Structure formats: C-alpha cells, structure tokens
Amino acid sequence: MNLSKEQKKAIYHTNGPALILAVPGAGKTTVLIHRTANLIINYNISPEKILSITFSKSSAKDMKDRFNKLYGNISKMPVRFSTIHSFSYSLIREYAFKNKIRYILIEDQKKKLNKFNILKKIYFSTNNDYISEEKLEALINSIGYIKNMLITPREFLSKSKIEIKNFKDIFEKYESYKRDNKLIDFDDMLTLSLKILQNDMYILDKYRSKYEYIQVDEGQDTSKVQMEIIKLLSQPKNNLFIVADDDQSIYGFRGAYPMGLFEFNKIYDNSKIFYMEQNYRSTKNIVSVCNKFIKKNTLRYSKNIFTQNSFLEPINIVKVNTLEDQYEFIINGLKNSNYNNTAILYTNNISSIGIIEYLQRNNIPFYMKDTKIKFFNHWIVQDIIHFFILSQDNSNIESFKNIYFKMNGFISKKQLNYIKTLNHNQSIFNKLLDIPGITQFYRKNFLDLKLAFKKLSKMKPLDAINHIEKNLGYEDYLKESCMKFGHTFDTLRTILNYTKIIASKTKDFNDFIERLKYLQYLCTQSKGVKEGITLSTIHSAKGLEFERVYIIDLVEGDFPTISSIDAFNRGNIEALEEERRLFYVGMTRAKNHLILLTIDNKNSKKMEVSRFLKELEELEV
Predict the structure, then answer these.
(1) What share of the chain is helix, strand, coil (3-state, %, to 5)?
(2) For residues 46-67, b (16+ Cβ closer than 10 Å) or e, as one string?
(3) Which residues of 138-175 are buried (b: 16+ CB within 10 A; e: fewer)?
(4) Burial of residue 535 (number of CB atoms within 10 Å: 0-12, 13-18, 19+)
(5) Sign of the dihedral through C-alpha 131, 134, 139, 144
(6) Which CA distances in Å does 97 have to 100, 102, 485?
C-alpha cells in the first residue's frame, strides 16, 4: 500500500505519547490500522496489550473489519477495537463482580424500567405536569453534558439557558434514584468507570498492565470524562496514540472537549505531534477553499490542508427564492447523478421533510441516516389533524378537547366540561350555543366558529391550513405559546410550513392524512434502501464521503443558529466557531461536486444569506 511520508512517521511511532492531527480525507483509520500491525509485527507486542478506542460502534466495527482484511492472519489473538462505552461497561462488570453488586442498565426503551420513563415520572412529581418529547430530549442531553464535562448542575445553569422548570431538583432526584437502586445509564458508564479507576487500585493496576498501548480515534470528539479515563489508564508509561482533527470537533453539545488536544503537550511530557495535512478525497477546488475557510477560526492548531488531486469544478453557490424552488433545483440536478454517491446534508432533521416529499413525488429513492424525525408526531401537525377531524365530524369531543383553547371563541374549561355532559352525537357548536345564560358576545363567537368550521370542511388541505392559521386564530395561539413555553416563532412556523408543503399536493383531508402516514413509513423503511440518495444531518455524515454533496437551508439564523450569533455578538466565539467547523465538515464530505443552497424567503419572511456563504464568496469561490 502506498503511504505518504506523513502517514509513515505516525505509523512508526511506538512508545510515548503522540497526537496525530489529521485533516479530512487524510487516512486516519488507515494509519491506526497500520500502526497496530507495526506494533505486533515489528515489535512483538501482543494484540492483547493494545486497546483501540473510537467514537461509535460503526467506526469500531469498520476498523476491526479493515484490520482483519489486511492483517487478520498475523496473530491468533484478536486486537480490541472498542467504543469507550463498551470498554467502560466491561470495567464496571468486573468491578461489580468483585464487589458483589448488580448494576442494571436503563437505556433499553423496550423495557419498562428505562431512563425515559424514570425522568418522565420525576418531572411529573416535581412539576405536577407532563413533559413534552422536546423537553425530555433537552433534559437528557443536559444531564449527559453535565456528566461528560464533570461539572455540577449549578455550574451548568450559570452558563446555559434551559427551559426546564426545577432542572436542578430533577437532576438530583434522578441521580439519587439511580444510586439507591443500582441503575446506570450511558453517561454513568463513564463517570462510574472514572470513579472506579480513581478509587480501586487493584482494577486500575490490572487494566494498566492489561493495555500497555492505547490508541484513540476521533480524539476531538472525546469528552472531559473520557479524557480523564484515558489519561488514568495510560499512566505511567503514557504509550498513548491519539488521532484527531480539532477542526472537526462538532459535538460540544454532548460534552466534546477539544481543549484536551490543545493542552496535550502540557498534560504529557515528551509528547510528539504529527501532522497529516494531505487530503486524498476531494478536488483541488474544494480543498483549497476549505483550507482558507477554516482559518477564520482562532481556536485551532495551525494546519494547511492540501491535495494532489486535480481541479474539477468550482464550488457551486445557488440562491433561490423559496424552499420549493430549492427542492426543484435539487430534483433537476439529481436526474443525471449517481444516487448511491450523492448526499443531501442539513443541520436539523426537520429540513428533511420537504426533501422527502419532493423525492418521493419524483420517484427518487432515498436512505436516511437519522429516522427519528419528530415532525410527524409534533403537536402542531397533530393540532392540524384535530382541526380537520372536527370540521368533518362536528361531534368529535376528543379533537375539540385538544384544540378548543387554540382558536378563536374564548371557550372556557367550564364550558367544555358542561358540553361534555350533553348528547355525544350532537354538534359541539350547537351544544355551545345551548349553554344556559351565555352572553351575546359568546353567542356571536360560537356562531362564527360554526361557520368557520363549515367553510373548513369544504376546503382543500392547503387552503384549510391557511384558514386555520389566519381565520381561526391559530397563529395567535402559536405566538402566545412562544411567550409561555419558550419556543421560537420561526421554529413553529417552520413546522407549519412543512405541513403546508405536504398539503399542497393533496386533494382532500383523507389524502393529506394518508400522505403523512406514507411519508412517515418511508422514513422508517429507508434504512433498508440500498440504492438511493443519502439524507443526513452533517453531524451524522462525519466520516462519510460522496461524489456529490448538496448542503441546504443555508440562511442566517438557521446555520449559524441565532443562539450562536447572539453569543458571538456578546463576545463568546466558541459556539460560532463550532458551527463553522460543522460547515467545514459538511463541505469536506464532497469528493467532486459541492452545491450550497440558500433561500430568499422562508415562512413568508425575507431571509439573509448565511454568513458562512458570504465568507466563501469573499474567498472568490
């Protein structure tokens, strides 16, 4: 195999700490595999003495498969390629066996005892209210961040804004409940492993002697607690080999700690830093622009990404008017492309909704990296369905219960409870009009509602949604919910807009409902699609490569986000620099063709081009 001088220098490093800074497409996994073989073949180091840690299960499997394919016959003993969580779990099991403790893992949602159910109960008992799916996700992510960063809830709250009432109490109750019942989640695997290594000298010494050589892939994604575990294990010999790219550190929200890379020389005496700056993946057009672009960041090692690949075509920046124009442009571009080697990337899963609608309408197959899309079960989509159901069946009390306070009419809970006692088959609007002693104000409101729903029942789905939004007062409710629950209006309007995109191609209410169900089915089934366009967030696409890459929805406020821009304006550059790294990761997925799309109008609002596109234009893309 042809290896560059840069790669060989890293591969032939044996003892002592080393940090390998590798740019995108530099062959990081190749170096780790050959270095592992070098230790075994040329230095007679037993495979049992080598521990290779990577970020994900798929990466660990890929490294193992590639090693076995090249060097599977060099030893009867297997080399361990593992995630940090898998390694930590085995350490915990050994500690539990030694101390006769039975820990229960609570990550399986199929089991009744899982962290999701536990946190729902704690939230309800603390706040006397049910937690939404969005808030539950935010709660879980915040707990994970605290544990991965080895900070306290108080420290977290002093720097972060979280829309969860009594967060600190919930955190402490959750930790106490797990401790009392010997329960652990994925984050506990790490914090408990660190605690064991800090306090149990027998296990620490055993694992230090067991693994004399430790290799870490994707070091920029390593959290503070993971870094501490690795540091403890590698001492005192410090035969530690970390492959990383600080320019691809994009998991700050999970507790990724790239500062550990910047402090490498301080932490480890006599350490060596190797640079792998040659990109073997992309054209010279893409590589040269990406090299200049990432240098806008200040929190980084100074590197120069280069390639010996030839020029092909410039990066294509495309400006269109609306979301629909964006999709039409992509559909036209896909007609002559290889589906298997094409990806459409975005920062938020919700961006996939309009894309899948257009792909399916044009019979273009797709594969989704992330199938857990919250759109189809989002409360706004469910509200629209309830409005439609009530327009078709005026007696449907269940749908009415869900939306009576989200529309015009000023209907009270007391009035709702009264009409629930009346004939179930009677029109709800007639029952409202029959409430004893209602004022002329209420009578007019109820008559207006009755007429509005009659009109609604005869409308096409798109017209109906506009009618619900403007004439039934649903837009006012959305604005109120933003103030009450901390949503952003743009986010809610985006959900409603995607609902309209789907509705626009349907002829009636039943057709619209079936369309939603079918698109949801396609998303879940797309995992099995072998020949299709890849749809993915940029986060999930890291490590992958494609001939042709589209990055969509590149508008200011979406990418970068409003929160990053606000933090930057207050003097905190870290969040914006992480988003610039994310954009860099997205661009460097492309081998030959990179198309970047921005839109002028979204949610009936004039949009501004992402500052990242402006930076590229200044580089004369």
Answers:
(1) 55, 15, 30
(2) ebebbbbbbbbeebbebbbeeb
(3) bbbebbbbbbbbbeebeebeeeeebebeebeebbebbb
(4) buried
(5) positive
(6) 5, 8, 46
Evaluate whether 610 touches 554 at the Cβ level (below 8 Å).
Answer: yes
Contact 619, 292 (CB under 8 A): yes
Cα(456)–Cα(54) distance, rounded to whole angstroms?
Answer: 55
Nearest of 286, 338, 287, 281 to residue 317 by alpha carbon: 286
Token pair 């809830």: residue = 153
- What lies within 8 Å, CB to CB, of 548 at 6+ separation is 337, 338, 341, 342, 343, 590, 592, 593, 594, 595
With contact defined as beta carbons under 8 Å apart, do 551 and 538 qualify? yes
Of the candidates 585, 582, 587, the residue with the CA atom closest to the CA atom of residue 597 = 587
User: Is 131 strand, coil or helix?
Assistant: coil
Q: Which two tokens stand for residue 33?
A: 């595999």
Exposure string for 424-455, b = 16+ CB within 10 A, e = fewer: eeeebbebbeebeeeeeebeebbeebbebbee
Residue 170 DSSP code: H
Beta strands per DSSP E along 494-618: 533-537, 546-551, 590-599, 601-602, 605-606
Pairing of strands 590-599, 546-551: parallel
CA distances to 296, 593, 596 from 282, rounded to whole Å, are: 21, 9, 16
Gap between the Cα atoms of 58 and 64, Å rounded: 10
Identify the CA nearest to 139 among candidates 512, 124, 150: 124
Measured distance CA(150)–CA(139) in Å, rounded: 17
Residue 398 has a CB neighbour count (10 Å cut-off) of 9
Supply angle C-alpha 198, 98, 108, rounded to 5. Answer: 85
Q: Decide: 617 and 562 in contact? Cβ < 8 Å.
A: no
Q: Which residue stretches of 274-338 are H helix?
A: 284-294, 323-334
The set of residues, in sequence order, having a beta carbon less than 8 Å from that of 18 and lying 6+ positions away, is 10, 240, 241, 242, 271, 272, 273, 274
**Residue 73, Cβ density class (10 Å: 0-12 exposed, 13-18 middle, ≥19 buried):** exposed
**Spatial contact of 28 and 243, defined as CB atoms under 8 Å apart:** yes
Task: For residue 218, give the nearest of 10, 22, 55, 32 by alpha carbon.
Answer: 55
**pTM for the complete prediction?**
0.92
- Residues 419-477: pLDDT tens digits? 888 888 899 999 999 899 889 999 999 999 999 999 999 999 999 999 999 999 999 99
Helix, strand or coil, per DSSP, at residue 276: strand
pLDDT means per 10 residues, the chain with 621 residues, are 89 96 94 95 94 90 91 84 95 96 93 94 94 88 96 92 91 97 96 97 96 95 95 96 96 88 93 96 96 95 95 95 96 89 95 96 92 88 96 94 92 88 88 90 92 95 96 94 81 94 96 96 89 95 95 96 92 94 98 97 90 92 55
pLDDT at residue 373, rounded to an integer = 84
CB-CB contact of 424 with 455 (8 Å): no
Using only C-alpha atoms, the chain has a radius of gyration, in whole angstroms, of 28
- In the DSSP assignment, the letter for residue 256 is B
Closest CA to 246 of 198, 303, 296: 303
